[in-house]
Specification:
Elements: H1 7-17, H2 30-42, H3 47-54, H4 58-66, H5 72-75, E1 78-79, E2 87-88, H6 89-95, H7 101-114, H8 118-130, H9 135-144, E3 153-158, H10 162-169, H11 173-186, E4 192-196, E5 200-205, H12 207-215, H13 220-238
Helix pairs in contact: 2-4, 3-4, 6-8, 7-9, 8-9, 11-13
């Protein structure tokens, strides 16, 4: 047993990091895993104990803990695998190597916009360490080396209303993303995916999302999404 965690949390933690669990779905996101390992460390467990309890090596424990070094508005974007609308765990561990928080945000957003791989993010991080390039220029250089370029549209918004923020703050990443998916469906946004934090959200789509954004006033999509999200959360509350 890890300090500071109950049996249910420990079980979910093991399911989240165990081999092959991606086939059944992981209860916790990489950031949520890191938060719970951090809690165990803060209450007295060593890295060695955490590694033994979770059947990981110590470097694996370090990778999860390192995610706490990312800005809060980037953490909710991180998921286990790659895909449209998320920053993969492997990409996130490369972004952590970038020292400046604003550069970290820029690169995380570029992962969403360009579907960058962890190898490409590593190249960006190396360029930033070795040159005076801006993060934007480093991303452009790395993406420009591809044989073809795929354009994605990214919309970053803020969750409005303290009650809604408090509600979302008490949910896991998996639960928040399910709410966002139903909200996207209610808004009839085609070929759009995303991630929902307690205070921010991100939407990623193709040219159809770009067209929607072009037809709306500034912040209109944010207002509409938060209004539907409030209704979705009230439905959750009414059903217990």
């Amino acid at each position: 047993m890890l300090a500071g965690l109950d049996a249910l949390e420990l079980g979910r933690l093991r399911l989240s990091v165990g081999y092959g669990t991606h086939k059944k779905g992981r209860p916790y996101s990489p950031v949520e895993v890191g938060l719970r390992i951090g809690r165990a460390r803060a209450t007295g467990d060593s890295v060695e104990v955490c590694a033994r309890e979770l059947r990981l090596d110590e470097s694996g424990i370090g990778r999860f803990l390192s995610l706490q070094g990312l800005p809060e508005d980037v953490r909710h974007l991180i998921d286990w695998g790659s895909g449209k609308g998320v920053v993969s765990f492997s990409c996130a561990t490369e972004i952590v190597r970038i020292k400046d928080c604003e550069d970290q945000r820029t690169v995380a957003n570029a992962v969403l916009a360009h579907g960058m791989t962890s190898k490409e993010v590593r190249q960006v991080a190396q360029l930033l360490r070795r040159s005076a390039q801006s993060a934007e220029d480093a991303v452009e250089e790395v993406v420009g080396m591809r044989p073809t370029v795929v354009k994605r549209y990214v919309y970053l918004g803020t969750v409005r209303g303290d009650p809604l923020v408090r509600f979302l703050d008490g949910r896991t990443q998996r639960e928040r993303d399910a709410l966002l998916a139903s909200t996207i469906a209610a808004l009839k946004l085609k070929a759009v995916s995303g991630r929902l934090g307690s205070r921010q959200f991100a939407l990623v789509g193709d040219a159809r999302l770009g067209q929607v954004l072009a037809e709306m006033q500034a912040d209109e999509l944010e207002e509409r999404l938060c209004a539907v999200l409030e209704q979705e959360t009230s439905d959750v509350d009414s059903h217990g």
